[in-house]
């Protein structure tokens, strides 16, 4: 569709994300490992410029937190635009993430801090049936010679 017109049987979408991958709960079936492997494959194919270690750690934290703090469903989406990568975690909990004081004795509290530091931008928004956590990265500018 260009300027609102349909072109034959094929549609052309302007300014829409180029690719999308979806992982869903229940975590017993796919868990964090399934989300990480799907994300790694997605990055290799669609976002070779992204830092895979940072993105995989953010995905791991979002999936772990959704599984730990949500009694219901969760849904992970990865979207690649021409210059952006977006990771979105929707879940059934209306409770917004809260940064905790890290517990060096093994009690956690590091995950939300890591998500905020590793992603270029993090947004949390209430949704009709829970919330959405959105982490985004921009493609780095080419280095000048």
Brief rundown of the structure:
The protein has 145 residues and is of the alpha+beta class. Helix content is 29%, strand content 26%.
Largest sheet: 5 strands, antiparallel
Topology as a string of helices (H) and strands (E):
EHHEEHEE
Which percent band covers the strand fraction? 25-35%
How are strands sequenced across the largest beta sheet?
1-2-3-5-4
- β-strand number: 5
The 3D shape can be described as globular
* Contiguous uncertain segments of 5+ residues: 1-15
Structural class: alpha+beta
Work out the helix count: 3
Integer-rounded radius of gyration: 17 Å
Distance between the termini: 41 Å
| Overall mean confidence score, pLDDT | 81
Q: Care to describe what's here?
A:
The protein is α+β, with helices and mostly antiparallel strands and 145 residues long. The chain is built from 3 helices and 5 strands; from the N terminus they run E-H-H-E-E-H-E-E. The protein has helices at 31-46, 52-69, 111-118; strands at 19-24, 74-80, 84-91, 121-127, 130-138. The protein has a 5-stranded antiparallel β-sheet with strand order 1-2-3-5-4, with helices on one face. A hairpin with a 3-residue loop joins strand 2 (74-80) and strand 3 (84-91). Helix 1 runs antiparallel to helix 2 (52-69) and helix 2 packs antiparallel against helix 3 (111-118). It is globular and about 45 Å long. It starts with 18 loop residues before the first strand and ends in a 7-residue tail after the last strand. Residues 1-15 have low confidence and may be disordered.
